[in-house]
Amino acid sequence: MLLRFVAVIFAGMLLTLGASGQALDEYQVKAAFLYNFAKFVEWPPEAFKTAKDPILVCVLGRNPFGKALEEAIRGKSIAGRAFAYRHVSDAESASACQILFCRLGGKQTLPVAPREFETYGHPDGWRKRKVSPPMAE
Question: Hey, CA dihedral for 93, 95, 100, 106, is it positive or negative?
């Protein structure tokens, strides 16, 4: 059911964008997906330091979006929270992000998780996986 819902949203995005006559590249579509994905998340209060903090969308590693991600979230908000963009270079910096896009490939791995989070990926199909920080010794 959820897969059908996501497919309908994705198809609607493509039809809407295609109707305007603009050619879209892969990362413009992915940027729109990240923004739309955030609409369906119930953010727990502990995901933010204060009630006014923005939803921070980050890119770890090489940024394949160009300006598409910043443009997709510019001026938008959800439940009174604005969006902000940040490029991060390590797991510690990424700990402040609510949405983290990782451009990893080959044998690269995600750096150690500073807090528990969920990942969604697509190299072998979309899947969800919970990742927890290592236990303190």
Answer: positive
Could you say which DSSP state residue 125 is in? B
Alpha carbons 121 and 127: distance in angstroms, whole number: 6
Side chain identity at 97, as an amino acid letter? C
Q: And the tokens for 60?
A: 């770890």
Strand partners, 125: 123
How many other CB atoms are found less than 10 A from the CB of residue 89? Answer: 11
Reported as a single tens digit per residue, the pLDDT across 72-115 is 999 999 989 999 999 998 878 888 888 888 876 655 555 555 55
Q: Are 68 and 27 in contact (CB under 8 A)?
A: yes
Which residues lie closer than 8 Å to 76 by C-beta, 6 or more apart? Answer: 35, 82, 83
Nearest to 55 by CA among 17, 89, 13, 97: 97
